[in-house]
Write a structure and sequence with these properties.
This protein is α/β, with parallel strands linked by helices. The protein has eight helices and five strands; from the N terminus they run ααβααβαββαβαα. It has a five-stranded parallel beta sheet with strand order 3-2-1-4-5. The longest helix is centred in the last third of the chain and has 12 residues, at 136-147.
């Protein structure tokens, strides 16, 4: 049901973020990636990323939900079951991390971002695509998730950017 209601990830937005890396992007971790929306978008457009800054391998989806990961694996994506706050991956192990429309669902999002800062190799990039709770669409999403009794935590863009800077991410 999830994939029917959630729009596809924007490959163009993700690629723009990946191009900010100061190193060659070969390994990408799709954190809280669910069914692999972002990983699929990147895989489908990997040829446009190839060249001087990137030789993208298939992105790996990390999620805590076995059911969501089963969908990612069924789509041919490598998948790892794990918590975004303590991923079962070595520090500095990936060139890039993407978190697409999912940070608000992660318990202790600050700890998850700290983990991302540790996982990404020097010169790598963490790309976050998240709903802005101050927009009309964002306010609607916040209201719907509260009605559904979800414990979602939304960040305003400046607040999120400030948190990332404090962690040493630009």
């Amino acid at each position: 049901v999830y994939d029917l209601f959630v729009p596809s990830a924007s490959a163009e937005e993700l690629q723009a973020g990946l191009r900010l890396a100061q190193r060659r992007v070969e390994t990408v971790l799709d954190v809280a990636g669910g069914t692999g929306r972002a990983a699929r978008a990147l895989t489908d457009t990997a040829s446009s990323l190839s060249g001087t800054t990137s030789t993208l391998d298939s992105p790996v989806v990390l999620d805590i939900s076995a059911a969501m990961l089963a969908r990612a694996a069924a789509a041919g994506l490598p998948a790892i079951r794990g918590d975004a706050r303590q991923p079962p991956i070595k520090d500095d192990a990936v060139d890039a991390i993407v978190i697409t429309d999912a940070l608000h669902h992660v318990p202790e999002p600050g700890r998850a971002l700290e983990a991302c800062a540790e996982l990404v190799a020097p010169g790598g990039v963490v790309v976050i695509r998240e709903f802005d709770p101050m927009t009309r669409r964002g306010r609607l999403l916040v209201a719907l998730e509260r009605l559904a009794r979800m414990d979602s935590v939304f960040f305003e863009p400046d607040e999120l950017a400030g948190s990332l800077r404090k962690m040493g991410l630009d």
